[in-house]
Write a structure and sequence with these properties.
mainly alpha, Arc Repressor Mutant, subunit A, 8 helices, elongated
Length: 185
């Protein structure tokens, strides 16, 4: 897309945003039609699942509609939309990971002694705490790589980052976790 086309698209987006704020439902449909495929592709790269990607894409546009009043019209619309999509996907991944941990904890409890379970639960709790304490940019890359098993390339595409940035953030996250969890491992 040329610079001229981008400028025209930004203007059209801004017109639609203003019309949506004024109650024009057709303008919202037009905005969804323009960006739905791009948002779906981004989300699909992050979560992998078709059904979950559909749900997250729909949730993203619902959030956009509900929060359009907070959109700063001096900035382009798409980066704001993309950030909402990424945050919505990350929230869904965290929920999914938490559900997986619960299932894993149930399996562990059945197979180990009480003492081992307590130790493992403490390690899991500490790991969750330390992951949550990571800077957001490192935590996001770490979760996508370790819990969602996305490739470096998929993460770079999903977050609109260079491959080197993804690898650097992941390396920093791992170093930080290793240092902060050394007494538990």
């Amino acid at each position: 897309m040329t610079g001229w086309q981008q400028l025209l698209q930004r203007r059209q987006d801004l017109q639609w945003v203003r019309r949506i704020k004024a109650g024009d439902q057709q303008a919202f449909r037009s905005l969804v039609e323009r960006y739905q495929a791009r948002i779906y592709a981004l989300v699909r790269a992050m979560v992998g699942s078709h059904a979950l990607s559909d749900d997250i894409t729909q949730d993203t546009f619902i959030k956009v509609y509900r929060n359009l009043s907070s959109f700063d019209e001096s900035y382009p619309f798409f980066p704001w939309l993309r950030r909402i999509a990424v945050n919505t996907a990350l929230t869904a991944l965290h929920v999914q990971a938490a559900q997986s941990r619960v299932a894993l904890n149930e399996d562990i409890r059945q197979e180990t002694s009480l003492e081992q379970t307590i130790e493992q639960n403490e390690l899991i709790r500490q790991m969750q705490k330390k992951i949550a304490e990571l800077p957001e940019e490192q935590r996001t890359v770490f979760v996508l790589r370790t819990q969602q098993e996305m490739s470096y390339e998929e993460i770079a595409a999903a977050l609109n980052l260079s491959l080197g940035t993804v690898m650097s953030r992941l390396s920093r996250a791992r170093s930080r976790l290793k240092e902060s969890l050394h007494e538990y491992i």
